[in-house]
Amino acid sequence: MSCLWWECRSRGRLGARCMIPSMESEVSVFILAGGKSTRMGRDKAFVEFQGQTLLCRMLDVARQVSPNVCIVGDRGKFAAFASVIEDAFPNCGPLAGIHAALRGSRSDLNLILAVDVPFVSLAFLQYLIARAKKLPDATVTAARALGGFQPLSAVYRRDFAEVAEKSLRQQRYKIDALFDSVHTQIIAEEELEAAGFSPQVFRNLNSPQDLTAAT
Fold first, then answer.
1. Domain-by-domain residue ranges, the chain?
2. Which residues contact 16 (CB under 8 A, 6 or more apart)?
3. Which of 4, 82, 140, 208 lies in the 20 to 30 Å Cα band around 166?
4. How far apart are CA 125 and CA 111, in angstroms?
5. Which residues contact 5 (CB under 8 A, 6 or more apart)?
6. What are the pLDDT digits (tens) for 136-189?
């Protein structure tokens, strides 16, 4: 199902608020698209990569994971493409996006994806969600790869919103600094590789140089 099809459908049928299903979905997917894209020099969501915009690419894979998909960003920019939820703490970075997603979700499990990680595959996302389901006491399931945590390709339970909000109110915006305060299931790089996934799935496209190198 292409992003273009959903764009046409959403213009006439989707409301301004994040679409809530009639019954709770097991997993919701949120695509964070509210960044300023300073290094790219233009909105990363609409940068083309391998024949698709980054936004469309992420929407396509997200909709294979769950029917409940929402963009976190500017409603005026993104309402044509999917349901949208906006930050309650504007200009506070990705942590504010995670907070908004979890506050707007009716699912316990929530897959958070940055718009600029085009190498994540359906198989990898299914693996990540399966790991989260196996450890119901874990508030966060995140990989540690490429030299650090990967909090923008991770699964969060809804109650992480409380931790995020407290941190935002204290003007502390680093996401992985909060992982010590909750039960975090860490997937090591070696575990990813043993499961057949390269750490390069987390490679993001921040600049024109990144885009050129990836094409």
1. 3-18+25-214
2. 75, 79, 84
3. 82
4. 8
5. none
6. 999 999 999 999 999 999 999 999 999 999 999 999 999 999 999 999 999 999
